Amino acid sequence: MVRKFRPPVIDQLLFIARCPWSIIGYLFLLSFFVVSCGSVTPPAQPQTVTVYASPSVEPWMGEVFACGSAGNIMIRVTADAPDVSLRLGDPDDVSRNVYQIGEDEVLVVVNRESSLQNLSLREVQALFAGQADEPVQVWIFPSELDISGLFDQFVMEGRSVTSFARIAVSPDEMSEAINSTPNAIGVIPARWGRGDARAVYSAGNFPVLALTSGEPQGAVRDLLTCLQQ
Question: Residue 131 pLDDT > 70, yes or no?
Answer without folding.
Answer: yes
